[in-house]
Design goal:
389 residues; alpha/beta; Ubiquitin-like (UB roll); Rossmann fold; 6-stranded antiparallel sheet; 8 helices; 19% helix; globular; binds flavin-adenine dinucleotide; binds FE2/S2 (inorganic) cluster
């Protein structure tokens, strides 16, 4: 059965007709087409099975197997395509489709794309199956990415931490190279449940590492995390695919402000250690939000950063949002945003900020940072959204 196609302009008109001011309308998720530009190449024949992707800014193009996802295909070829979550929530892979046809996996009208971007022909590359030759408008990242790969491994460490968090360590059958702040998709051997979790170790130099660690929050009803938390899973075989993500990419030597909510501390540990080692003249402040004092975890790993870099370069600020009044807790209380003020004693005008945690927390922190004069290009964020595929 052929997939119906619409000219994108007609489809937008459909949406506009029923639009409610200020609210995005849902759009059909079937294949849509953009009228080919005058210099658009004729789609490669079905026999070839490949489509060519041309970048309108003159960067070198690449081929994609028809039906493959635009982003994954680019990453597998070592192309520095902007991305983070790969599940359609962060908006980092937004790309203007100049010409050609794609099938969206999700309804872009419900994605981070704004009405204006939808009208300008933007798509999410991570959610776009390529159906024809494409011309796209996207700025590739000026940083060489590590090629993702699939590696089997075995659980070699399993520890239940406060706050219903599991410290999971996996021994890999071959070394993996990753960068600070990146993540991998994990799947138990034989299972279709694949979920994204961030590395908490700092990257190792050279050929990579054959052991990786994750901090995984047990979510009620969560298929992977509930299974993982149920008992010690040492010895279980797990497949890892990665690395992915570009949250930690910032090659400028300067002060760092890291803000984590819950297991968002995993990539922050990796980024903080990496930056302390790479930029020995600059301090790192870590604001770590959890609910109560009994939910605080990974404090030993945070303290270890002080041993690595010296206590004068590392400041750790735990913040509790739901600690009972009158408890023995002497530290900060409230949301992490409450800590972000002039008294934090950081230079908002020059620092790099790294933010990670649940979506509402990340969005609130990003907003707060902007009001404190942290420019958008110095804010790097990862939202821990459900990552099921
Ligand atoms: C880039 C990235 C990095 C991440 N890194 C980490 C990390 O380091 N540590 C970490 O703990 N998390 C991390 N996450 C988040 C993690 O991947 C997700 O929370 C993941 O979905 C957990 O998998 P799960 O199988 O345990 O839960 P899922 O089965 O995916 O369910 C997630 C939550 O949604 C609920 N849910 C599921 N299906 C439905 C439904 N149909 N309707 C309503 N609710 C539903 C579940 O009850 C549960 O609370 C990351 C996410 C991303 C995108
Ligand atoms: S929305 Fe595509 S990588 Fe996040």
């Amino acid at each position: 059965m052929s997939i119906p196609t619409w000219p994108v302009r007609a489809m937008r008109t459909q949406c506009e007709q029923s639009s409610i001011p200020g609210k995005k309308e849902t759009m059909p998720t079937e294949t849509f087409a953009v009228k080919p530009a005058s210099n658009d190449s004729v789609p490669s024949g079905p026999a070839s099975g490949h489509c060519h992707v041309t970048l309108s800014n003159g960067s070198e193009g690449f081929d994609v197997r028809r039906g493959d996802l635009l982003l994954m295909s680019a990453l597998e070829q070592g192309i520095n395509y902007p991305h983070n979550c790969r599940v359609g929530t962060c908006g980092r892979c937004k790309t203007r489709l100049v010409s050609g046809r794609i099938s969206p996996l999700v309804d872009f009208a419900l994605s981070p794309l704004t009405n204006e971007e939808l009208n300008d022909g933007y798509i999410l590359a991570c959610q776009a199956k390529v159906r024809s030759d494409l011309v796209i408008d996207v700025d590739l990242v000026d940083h060489q990415v590590v090629l993702p790969k699939s590696i089997p491994g075995t659980v070699c460490g399993w520890k239940l931490l406060p706050g219903d968090v599991i410290d999971l360590r996996i021994k890999l059958e071959e070394p993996l190279v990753f960068e600070a702040g990146q993540y991998a998709a994990l799947a138990v051997s034989g299972s279709f449940v694949r979920r994204s979790f961030s590395f908490y170790d700092a990257p190792s130099s050279g050929a990579g590492t054959d052991e990786v660690g994750f901090l995984i929050k047990r979510l009620p009803g969560g298929r992977f995390s509930e299974w993982l938390a149920a008992e010690d899973r040492s010895g279980v075989r797990i497949w890892l695919e990665g690395p992915f993500g570009q949250m930690g990419i910032d090659d400028t030597p300067r002060e760092s402000l890291c803000i984590a909510g819950g297991t968002g501390i995993a990539p922050i540990l990796s980024i903080a250690e990496d930056r302390l080692k790479r930029y020995p003249d600059h301090p790192v402040t870590i604001v770590f939000g959890v609910r109560t004092a009994s939910d605080l975890f990974a404090l030993d790993r945070l303290e270890r950063l002080k041993n690595i870099a010296g206590p004068e370069r590392v400041r750790i600020v735990p913040v509790l949002s739901h600690e009972p009044a009158g408890s023995a807790w002497q530290g900060r209380r409230g949301l992490v945003t409450a800590v972000l003020d002039e008294e934090l004693d950081v230079d908002y005008h020059s620092l790099s900020a790294f933010v990670c945690g649940a979506l509402p927390m990340v969005e609130a922190v990003e907003k707060r940072l902007r009001t404190l004069n942290v420019s958008t290009d110095r804010i790097h964020a990862d939202k821990f959204e459900p990552s099921g595929v």
